[in-house]
Amino acid sequence: MLEQANRVKYLILKEAYLEWRNKSVLASMLLYVIGATFIVYYAFEGRIEFQSWTAIFWVIVLFSVINIVGKTFEKEVNQQYYYIRGLVSPIELILSKLFYNAFLVFFFELIVYVEMTIFFGIQIQDSSYFLLVLFLGGIGFSNLFTLFSTITARLNNIVVLPVLGFPIILPLLILVLRLTNISNIEVDFDEKMINIGAMLLLDTITFILSIILFPYLWSE
To answer: CA of 109: how far to CAs of 23, 62, 106, 189, in Å?
Structure first.
């Protein structure tokens, strides 16, 4: 178990190192996030209601996630498949991808949040609750789109990603929108925890689903 954990940690660090060396992907995503936020700011002239702010925020995050996670297994399938397959088990590989992508998605969520706050000056009442929503939402997005990226990489067709992803990602989107609205209104603590519990349950289901299905997808 300890050896497996060390291999997963090694894969995560390796992924981060390769991403850092190839800065074009991260730079393009930062440019997209900054550009999208500025366009919205210019279009609304800096004045926007919280409901619109919420919708635009998650639209930017969603498209960022698709671009970040959508090509997760592109190199592993096309260039390094047999090497990676002989080096680590499918479970170790998917765990490393899930953990790394969750961190990366959360990082970009924070960037979008900071920029949207600076541009529009909207202060969320319960910011700690909203950060928890970002973290759990990032895990859910990472779990689903990492699994979808395996399918698209095997099919060698990136167009399949949004087609497969949207119907399944819809419950998660509805939930994060609801939790975002809750973070800015006065709601009982119990109701907040119930909704957080629902998000945790959804994250757990998608995580287990990824762990179960990935070995079959990887071996095909």
So the answer is: 18, 10, 5, 24
